[in-house]
Fold each of these.
Amino acid sequence: MKVRDLPPGRLLSVDPQTLIAEVARQMQKDDSDSVAVISDGRLVGIVTERDLVRAIAEGMDPQQAKAEVLMTADPATVDADEDVTVVAVKMMRMGVRHLPVVDKAGKPVGLVSARNLVAMLDREAH
């Protein structure tokens, strides 16, 4: 099975200048556990729930700090033609739960999450 066969993971996005507090509000509103950071149509980073927890623990002011300070820059990505088992192993080895999906031009088009992969494997097992 290929990434394209998974239920599409919606890719929530923000600008690098978006305040962390606004990033958290958007993630809560959209029930999302990650957000892509996009600049000029290009994926420049990703912010996850883990990043938000880290920011709070480190004392960052969410009303002052911006996404570009918190994000994981140049995150690993996958393309729609990759096999989901390869993607699952990649996620496990990297210790991540989210990987943006990019098209041939490198433009972000979706998101693969560990949750999506587990749900797909559960459906196939039953």
Amino acid sequence: MKKFKFAINGHDYDVEIMNFEDNMATIEVNGTPYQIDIQHEVKQSKTPKLVRQEVVIKRSDSKIKKTIVKTEGHEVKIPLPGNIMNIFVKEGDTVKLGDKLLMYEAMKMENTIIAEKDGVVKNIRVRIGDNILQGSVVLEIA
């Protein structure tokens, strides 16, 4: 465990503590083992030991059903909060992949939102000057 060097009355001693339990210690002094009794109180650790109970996982026989919800259109969402500056499309317009849909200001920068798929603009949910939050749906493409 731990090794120490002691000098007692001019003699050097190599002491190694081998085991330490309660008030009993096993030490080795210059290669000779000794069992010693500690006379003063041994300080206990203030950190409590964490004892956790075993977790029992209950399995049920029911199966999880996956529900697929079909949406009629593709929702265009804003990645950062900001202000709508310009809208390039109107409801009913046909857009192609990569067409500009709207411009908004976020973090003092102008950002352009482009179409991620071909389709027809079904619903525009914002107006110029609106403040929008991150993840807000601004329009739908069908």
Amino acid sequence: MKTPNHSQANILKVLEQTKKPLSAQEIWAEIQKQGQKIGVATVYRNLESLKIKGLIQIRTVHNQAIYSLVSEKQNFATCLQCGERTPLGISLAQSVEAPTLQSQAFEVYYHTLEVFGLCSPCQERSP
């Protein structure tokens, strides 16, 4: 696997520092704040490359792609209204991933389990 280029290293650094999933626009803004000159299109291209290398994962929340480091191995319950994420504390990796995919010669970079609904505060605000 190729090592990350300078732009990719900057993206990984931003995701590591913020410790939360970010959109491509948010990543670009953080890189700009650090004084790095990089275009938004370059961020998108590098995010795709990092995803293919298995270094980041992508999810969609509120019709927006958000990116996080693959080292984030928790699974989440995500509120559809406010986007708040709550760790579930469970993993399917050992029970599903290993026996099924290893027999199919499939290299797994990461897995996700996400439950969607409304958190308590949003339930109270909903009509």
Amino acid sequence: MLVAMVVGLVGGILLGFSLDISYPTEYSFYITMGLLAAIDSIVGAARSYLEGKYNNLIFITGFVTNAILAGLLAYLGDRLGVPLYYAAIFVFGGRLFQNLAVIRRLLIDKILTKNNSIAKK
């Protein structure tokens, strides 16, 4: 599963750089907020995979819902003249760093457990 995530990420990056797709600059802020939420969902999926709790339906619905919510917050805040996008940055950015910290700990634990089992033999 992890290989599929990496292949999908690399494929998406290659497609993004190779295709000449443009969008109006006024949408860039909303797209950025959606991307932040999507990256948070991807890192959360990696964490749940390492914990053995991954569920594809939860990932897909969370991915879409979080991206739409972040974009809508930015749009609504723009219409109201209130920087509501800070809520998306704060929540999704905070969760992103927390999930990365947990992933780091899980990987270190797996490496240490593997090294300890090899040393005992």
